[in-house]
Design a protein that fits this description.
Blueprint (H helix, E strand, L loop, with lengths): L9 E3 L2 E5 L5 E3 L3 H52 L3 E5 L16 E5 L13 E5 L7 E4 L6 E4 L16 E7 L2 E7 L5 E7 L1
Antiparallel strand pairs: 1-2, 2-3, 4-5, 4-8, 5-6, 7-9, 9-10, 10-11
C-alpha cells in the first residue's frame, strides 16, 4: 500500500483513494474486502465443480460413442462398396479380433474376404479404435457382444449361423451413457441413456 499526504478525500481513476486520520492517503483494498471476494469465489467454485465434472463425463461419452458409431457406419459402407463382408470387432492389439475383452479395449474394422471372422494378413485393415481410459466403458449385448458383421447388401449377419445380427453397444461414463442401437436390417442409430 502506498501512502501520501491528503488534502481531502478524492477519487483517482479506478483506484479509490481514502484519507486516513492524520492526512495520509490509502490506496487499494482492505484485507476484509479481499477475504470477502475469496469467499464468494469459493462458493461459486463449489457450485460449478459438479457441473464441470458432468460436462467432462458427457464429453468423454460423446467422443467415444461418436468414434464407435463412425466405425459401425464405415463397416456398413465398406461392405456395400465392396459387395462383401466387412467386420468390426474388439481388438486390444489392433490387429486381430479377440472375444474375451471389452469393447473399450479397442477395435478394428477390416474386409473379411474369406468370411472367417478373423483378420488375415492379406485382408485390409480399414480403421482402428484405440483403447479408452478407465473412466469409459463400452459393452455390447446379444449378438453384437463380440463383433458386428455386415454383408454386401448392407445388412448385418452373424458369421457362423448366417442369422441377422442386431443389438446395442453401450458407451458409459459416470452414470452418463449413449447407446448405438443396430436394428435387424443393420441400420445403426444413437440414443442417450443412463448406466
Amino acid at each position: 500500500m502506498s501512502e501520501g499526504i491528503c488534502d481531502g478525500c478524492q477519487h483517482s481513476g479506478r483506484v479509490e483513494v481514502r484519507c486516513r486520520a492524520g492526512g495520509l492517503l490509502e490506496y487499494g483494498y482492505s484485507l476484509v474486502e479481499l477475504m470477502m471476494v475469496l469467499a464468494v469465489l469459493g462458493v461459486l467454485s463449489a457450485i460449478a465443480a459438479p457441473s464441470f465434472a458432468r460436462l467432462l463425463a458427457e464429453t468423454r461419452v460423446r467422443d467415444a460413442s461418436s468414434d464407435l458409431f463412425a466405425a459401425v457406419i464405415q463397416t456398413r459402407s465398406e461392405a456395400l462398396k465392396r459387395h462383401g463382408r466387412a467386420v468390426l470387432c474388439k481388438s486390444a492389439d489392433l490387429n486381430r479380433c479377440i472375444d474375451d475383452i471389452r469393447w473399450d479395449s479397442g477395435w478394428i474394422v477390416f474386409n473379411d474376404e474369406n468370411e472367417s471372422g478373423q483378420r488375415d494378413a492379406d485382408e485390409a485393415l480399414l480403421r482402428t479404435g484405440e483403447a479408452r481410459g478407465g473412466r469409459v466403458t463400452i459393452s455390447g449385448d446379444g449378438s453384437v457382444g463380440n463383433y458386428v458383421s455386415y454383408v454386401g447388401s448392407g445388412r448385418t449377419q452373424q458369421l457362423n449361423t448366417g442369422a441377422w445380427q442386431a443389438g446395442t453397444l453401450t458407451v458409459c461414463s459416470e452414470g452418463i451413457a449413449r447407446q448405438i442401437i443396430i436394428n435387424r436390417v443393420g441400420r445403426p442409430r444413437t440414443v442417450p441413456a443412463t448406466c
